[in-house]
Write a structure and sequence with these properties.
The protein is of the alpha/beta class. The protein has two domains: 165 residues, D-Maltodextrin-Binding Protein, domain 2 (3-Layer(aba) Sandwich); 101 residues, Periplasmic binding protein-like II (D-Maltodextrin-Binding Protein, domain 2), CATH 3.40.190.10. The strands form three sheets. Strands 1, 2, 3, 4, 5, 6, 7, 15 and 16 form a nine-stranded mixed beta sheet that branches. A five-stranded mixed beta sheet has the order 12-9-13-8-14.
Amino acid sequence: MSVKITRAQFFFAATAVAALTLSACGGTADKAAETTEGGVQVVKVAASPSPHAEILQFIDDNLAAEAGIDLEIIEYSDYVIPNEVLVSGEVDANFFQTLPYLEEQGPKLGLKGTAGKGVHLEPLGLYSAKVKDVKELKDGAVIGIIADTVNQARALRLLESEGFVELPKSGDVNIHTVKKLKNFEWREVEGAQLVRSLQDVDAAVINGNYAQEGGLSFNKDAIVGEPTENNPASNLLVWRTEDDGVEKIQKLEQLLHSDEVREFIEKTWTDGSVIPVF
C-alpha cells in the first residue's frame, strides 16, 4: 500500500496523532498490535515517490509476503518530513536519502539513525529547456540549484567539473563559499520545484528522483551528468539506531539487496537515471 502525503497533511495528521497519544495507555502493547496482522509484520516506510516508493512497491507485490512482512509505504515529496516522522516513531524506516545527507541532517533533528547498505544511485544532472550543450550558456546565465546544503554541495561539485566554480579548500561548500569562474547568477530552488523552474532559468542542477518525477531522462535530457563510479551518494534504508536488530527492518534491508530488486532496477530505469550499487 502506498500513500502520498503533503506537508500540510503531515502537520494536521501529526496534531491528531499527538492528541490520540495523550489519551492512550499501554503504548508498547498497542504498537505491537498495530505492527502485526495475522503473523505478518507491518513495516511502515517513508519514501520519495520515485524511484524509492516504486522499488518498495515491487518488493511489497513480489517478495514481502514470503519474508513475512507487509509494507506500508508513505510517500513524501520533500527531504525533511521523512526524517521527522522517523524521529517521532510514526514510521519504522525511511528510504529517500544518502549517507552524507543523514550525517548532516540527523543531528539537527535529534535523529540517531542507522544507515543500511547502498541500494541505488540517482546521478545528478544539469538540465536545460533552452540549450543543448553546456558551452551554449551565455554570460549572465541563470543557474538553478537545490536549496538544501548537502545536495547543493553535491551539485556544486558537478558544476566545478565543468569549470563554473572553484570549491573552497576547506569548510562548507555552498553558493556563498565557492568562487565563480564564469559570469552567471544563482537561483536557489526547493528540490521538488527544480523541474518546474526550468522555464525560468537557463539551466538547473537537478537530483535524479526529482528529474524522474518531472519526466526527465538522465541519458536523454541531461546536458552534463555527475560520474557514477565511486560515487558516495547512494540511496539507502535508514532506521532508528535503537531499532538495530529489529527483525522486520532487517528483512526489508535484505530484500532491498536481493537479485530480484537489482533486476527490477536495471529493467525499469534503462536510461541510467537509477543504477543499482550492490
